[in-house]
Amino acid sequence: MGRIRKSFRSRWGTAVAAALPLVLLAGCSTSGGSEGGRSDDGTVTITMGLFGVMGFEETGILERYEEENPGIEIEAEVAGDEQTYYTALQTHLAAGSGLKDIQGIEIGRAKEIVDTQADSFADFSGMSGTDHFLPWKLNQMTTPDGQVLGLGTDIGPMAVCYRRDMFEAAGLPTDREEVAALWEGDWSKYVEVGETFMANSPDPDLSYMDSSTGLFNAMVYGSSEQFYNAEGDLIYDENPVVLDAWDLASEAATSGMTAALRQYQPEWDPGLANSTFATAVCPAWMLAHISEKAGPDNAGNWDIARAPQGANWGGSFLSVVEDSPVRDEAMDLVAWLTAPEQQEYIFQELGNFPSSEQAIESEGVSSTSSAYFNDAPIGEIFGAAAQEIPDEQVLGRKDGTIKDAFTQGLQLIESQGRSPEDAWSATEENIARAVG
Amino acid sequence: MATRTPAPPARERRRRWRDLPHRLDLRVAPYAFIAPFFVIFAAFSAYPLIFTFWVSLHRVELATMDRMEWLRLDNYTALWSDDRFWNALANTFTIGVISTVPQLLMALGLAHLLNYRLRGSAFFRVAALTPYATSVGAAALVFTMLFERDFGMINWGLGLFGFDNIDWESRKWPAQIAISCMVIWRWTGYNALLYLAAMQAIPRERYEAAAIDGASRWQQFLRVTVPGIRPTIVFTIVLSTIGATQLFGEPLIFGQGVNGITGGADNQYQTLGLLLYEEGWRNYQMGRAATVAWAMFLLLILLFVLHRVLRRVLSRRA
């Protein structure tokens, strides 16, 4: 009996062993199944791929849409780091599987999507009720033949976040109007204030700014031509805006006034929590991060002043995958999420500044103030900053990667003691590698 | 079969048909039995290997894999003259040495201790294996926090002895040491258990004989234990070398974000694995990434050949 059982079992074993590779191969050919779809009872499931703090998942606005639209279910997946997110998106686009119905696109990637993936995303150009955006916002996601590949979520008007208590201790004014007057019109004055701060601050361990990269970004993003010209050629190495920004940022980096922290990396957060620096150049979407990481202990210590010059750092889009089985429903959802009312709501909740002109002009946005930032009138400050954003911003394919290369170039000066010239040539080499 | 007699054709044919399953069983079944390995090997090893080589001869971007530009061996010559590649190779080597040597020595010592009769030995053996069971990501993240510049625990501990804060991530050797610590922590217990298993296979009599001859504990360790587990030591060295060549997750997480991908702003801890990742998944140049992958493959083959040659030379001398 035992012998029969044994041979029986081994025969099953071989059968399983023979079938296994087939099963494995079959498993490879069927795609991930992360796309949404329609179930038999008529429920529509829409999947979303998001990154950072875009505000949809965080404010509960998606649940509201589900309640208002019975039969629709939304599944959002949020990646913390945009670089990781975009890499996965590229892989999914190349493989043609694993895509969500709705994908978030960061401004640094907009040009690459427009240039290389126009066929993969649905066209919003004919959709009614989408004419409320700032004109330049949608231009960034429009192909030469007029397809609109995504609708805008937020934009990144700039201000300077500063610590009232530290400014006071260093004998500087604390009122946000007076602080703004210190550096009005020129970023180099912002660095000069830093020298005064460093000379007069009673605590030698305090730094003036978190990192020189914030300053660099603010200066570059205030110009309509940045790393590329309108023809798509790389011009960063001759663009006076970039060169000036590099000079001033590297001056700040060598002067010892920066805390040499890397923004959005783990060391930045304890820096905020333990109050190691007095200012940060802050786009609107950074407010949520600062207030969360600096914590309730620092409420009222932080305040916001106008930046010397307007600039647009960051901001995103929502796009719908063309081949999605629920494409129309997903487009409706995107139109709703980016509608003025919803943008206004997210701004009030998180501080992500609307890209909808109609929302910016609304009472709800312009009258918003932030209790955490000493009741700073953020609607007014960022609204004024948004006015200063150039109406045309020339984007390039590798904007995001080039920004990262400059971030690392400034780190070479700040943390590794390399000379600015040396760091510049290392950065040039990195950029050549990234665009090649 | 030897007494084959001519049979009428019809009968012969019928018999052939009847025998067919048996003959198939004999002739074909063996192939069917070994097929799973070859199918899996072809699908998951041979095909990727060959396709990667094909890709490495082209200029291809990740988003447009269907558009390939034929480059012959240009990617390889470019890699050969690329400082970044030699830097990554050197980093891979130095991190490999800093992590492997102390790790194997500590594992040997640990195994020797665990080999004694001691109370709760099962507990210690399981404890030695726990780091191995932890996910790379979780462990690396915790270590990254420990090695943090301003508020990390290690700098805090060093501060008690009057040391200034070390910027672990930005400086070359501190960064490589920090990464090596993660590798050592993770693999020491695993290697110790391999050694322990080998040690327990050494007959007790040898130790008794050595003791009778007046050998001290240390001499017993050197003269009996180490020669007794030599094959295992070679095996762990081979495993560690392969692991060191492929080092990726620890430095990626240690750097956090952009710096992780490039192995530091100055590439001060960029390993070959990270270089591959940077080319493929930051610059989206799959051709160049595939070239790095093949360079790593050739490197491992070179190491393997060197190892064989060295062993032959050594055994001939012995």
UniProtKB/TrEMBL annotation, chain A:
InterPro entries: Bact_solute-bd_prot1, SBP. Keywords: Signal. This is Extracellular solute-binding protein. Gene3D superfamilies: Periplasmic binding protein-like II (3.40.190.10). The keyword Signal applies. The lineage of its organism: Bacteria, Bacillati, Actinomycetota, Actinomycetes, Kitasatosporales. PROSITE patterns: PROKAR_LIPOPROTEIN (PS51257). Residues 1-26 form the signal peptide. The keyword Signal applies.
UniProtKB/TrEMBL annotation, chain B:
Residues 89-307 form the ABC transmembrane type-1 domain. It comes from the Bacteria. The chain crosses the membrane at residues 28-55, 93-114, 126-147, 177-198, 232-249, 291-310. Pfam families: BPD_transp_1. It is a multi-pass membrane protein. GO terms for biological process: transmembrane transport. GO terms for cellular component: plasma membrane. Keywords: Cell membrane, Membrane, Transmembrane, Transmembrane helix, Transport. Belongs to the binding-protein-dependent transport system permease family. This is Sugar ABC transporter permease.
